[in-house]
Known about the structure:
Rossmann fold; 2 domains; four-stranded parallel beta sheet; 19% strand
Amino acid sequence: MNFINPAPSILQSKKLYIFDMDGTIYLGNCVFPFAVRFIQNLRKNGKQVLFFTNNASHDPAFYLEKLNRLGFAATAQEIMTSGDVTAEFLLRHRAQKSVYLVGTNELVNNFREKGIPLLNGKEESADIVVTSFDTTLTYEKLDNACRFVRNGAEYLSTHPDFNCPTETGFLPDSGAIAAFVTASTGVTPTYFGKPYRETLDMICEATGHAKEEMCVFGDRLYTDIALGRRHGVTSVLVLSGETKPSDVDAAAPEDRPDFVYEDLDGVDRDLF
């Protein structure tokens, strides 16, 4: 890989450190010990941490329990998902529109608790279809989603990730499910989560930090790194998840990260 990192002082000057989860700080239930140490060092030095995952198959309460079980000492205010961003968009811009959601029970319950009116799939039409990473996916759900979209429903997706990295390999993710619906209907969804503007806006609003004060760490060029590249946030790619060195070499200059490390251990050593 032909890549030279700029001076670490660029990262040291930041105030908010945004972390992807799967592939960046853990793989499935396998925690990267150096990630725990790095985040502890950030907090000791007065830095703010935000855990942001595109994986909307679980709700923030799940991630809070998992992060704390793995040793990250997280708070509820430090956790955000693409599901949160999508729900906020629906509440602000599509209030009281009927929604057919293809997602896990956790995501369904999360949307219901926020007051979003959800359909059961037996209706003739829907105002909006939202698809996500659904480990309980059935053909019936896909059929309902496609039927509603063909009948004119607006099509949204919580996030564009094609694969979810785990300790045993990859699982088909939200982008793969959306590709099925698009192939059947010819309609491409509006995506949320990383790398889209709505995510950065919500992070700025929730934390009070300007984008120039942030850096984002992740393992995917097309989501984590693209969030930074598209919106002026310093981006750090770690090679502990989906992206390979050859992917960095093959990427267009405008799609490459600001920094590349094997994992967060290298960042920790450079900064502390």
